[in-house]
Design brief:
The protein is of the alpha/beta class and 322 residues long. The protein has a twelve-stranded mixed β-sheet, with helices on both faces. The structure holds 1,4-dihydronicotinamide adenine dinucleotide and the ligand NCC(=O)COP(=O)(O)O. 1,4-dihydronicotinamide adenine dinucleotide binds next to helix 4.
């Protein structure tokens, strides 16, 4: 039986997501099947599309036209300017895509970028991002955000919170869960039989024996010790400034970081165009490009589809090996 197509959400219609979906179709139409969940009226008109009623139709349609599972939106599509009338539609599309991935009608969910503030303002969206919303939709308490490329895999243990809240949010139990879910995800979704994890410290020099902060010793080290007692190959806490040069990266399969930018700066610096955001711990496969809505270039036709193409390819590979 052929693999079901991947569900690709439209994301914020004022961003670059729709342009990238059209470019990804042109690049992948003969390689892997996906369908776009979007309002057909929001598309450029430059790419042949076929409106489908059932995801399975995408398998036949894909070589000749971009399959679109229609979702009507209330607002218009103005590049660079999100219409609050569209916010509800953006959220509904994510939920529909997750339902299709959970039911097996889609082999995976690939999400295009959303604008978090536009959703908060327009739809009172209470989540800081897809990751947390998908955890809710998948009915799981804990999920992990991983940014993955051939150069590096990183996991921020705390995600979209103010930097001032990081020390209090980082707990031994939470970090232990992050380590456990990451190791499990590397085994089951990346095919790494015995994953090696390196955990970054929070403070400069990983606290330098308490001279530069206490959390490395009192919060992070106990989580590592607990994971090691479970038999996991985990080391740290390591000074974050020396974890990402080439020979350091060769020693681990994923770096667990204390906060968003500690993880995403090295990931996006090394591989902005190839990076894929993967949610681990969900009952279905979810990938996404690593970048955002890029309002500054929306509608200009210059957005680079590479990260979206990598996200679709990785989702396909994960679905095939399930
Ligand atoms: N998975 C998601 O839904 C994500 C959503 N976001 C959201 O996107 C919005 C904008 O975030 P920013 O920090 O401005 O990051 P951004 O990634 O949208 O843009 C940063 C810079 O990179 C450029 N850029 C991004 N993607 C590009 C592409 N494919 N081709 C060429 N240039 C590209 C943009 O033009 C801009 O100059 C925010 O609301 C943020 O929360 C950010 C990251 C992921
Ligand atoms: N900075 C990464 C990002 O914003 C992705 O968040 P999510 O929407 O995938 O949870």
């Amino acid at each position: 039986m052929p693999l079901a197509p991947i569900a690709l959400t439209c994301g914020e219609p004022a961003g670059i997501g729709l342009e990238l979906a059209e470019k990804a179709w042109a690049a992948l139409r003969l390689d892997l099947p996906f369908f776009l969940l979007a309002d057909p009226d929001h598309l450029s008109g430059d790419t042949p599309i076929s409106v489908i009623q059932d995801p399975a139709e995408a398998l036949d349609v894909m070589p000749n036209a971009l399959p679109v599972l229609p979702h009507p939106f209330f607002g218009r599509c103005i590049p660079g300017t999100p219409d609050p009338e569209n916010a509800e539609g953006v959220v509904e599309v994510i939920s529909r895509g997750a339902d299709l991935a959970q039911s097996g009608a889609a082999s995976a969910l690939c999400t295009s970028p959303i604008h978090k503030k536009a959703l908060k303002d327009g739809a009172e969206f209470p989540y800081p991002g897809h990751t947390e919303y998908l955890a809710y939709l998948g009915n799981v308490d804990n999920v992990v955000m991983m940014i993955a490329s051939d150069a590096l895999r990183v996991v921020p243990a705390t995600i979209h919170i103010p930097i001032s809240e990081v020390p209090a949010t980082l707990t031994t139990d939470g970090l232990y869960e992050t380590i456990r879910i990451t190791a499990d995800g590397l085994r089951t979704q990346f095919g790494i039989a015995a994953p090696r994890l390196a955990v970054a410290g929070l403070n400069p020099h990983a606290g330098e024996g308490g001279a530069m902060g206490h959390e490395d010793a009192t919060v992070i080290a106990p989580a590592i010790a607990r994971a090691q007692a479970d038999g996991l190959d985990v080391t740290g806490p390591w000074p974050a400034d020396t974890m990402f040069h080439a020979s350091a990266r060769a020693k681990y399969d994923a770096a667990i970081c204390a906060y968003h930018d500690q993880a995403l700066i090295p990931a996006k610096t090394l591989a902005f165009d190839e990076g894929v955001n993967v949610t681990l711990g969900l009952p279905f496969i979810r990938t996404s490009p690593d970048h955002g809505t890029a309002f500054d270039i929306a509608g200009q036709g210059i957005a680079n589809p590479s990260s979206t193409i990598h996200a679709l390819k990785l989702a396909h590979q994960m679905a095939k090996s399930r």
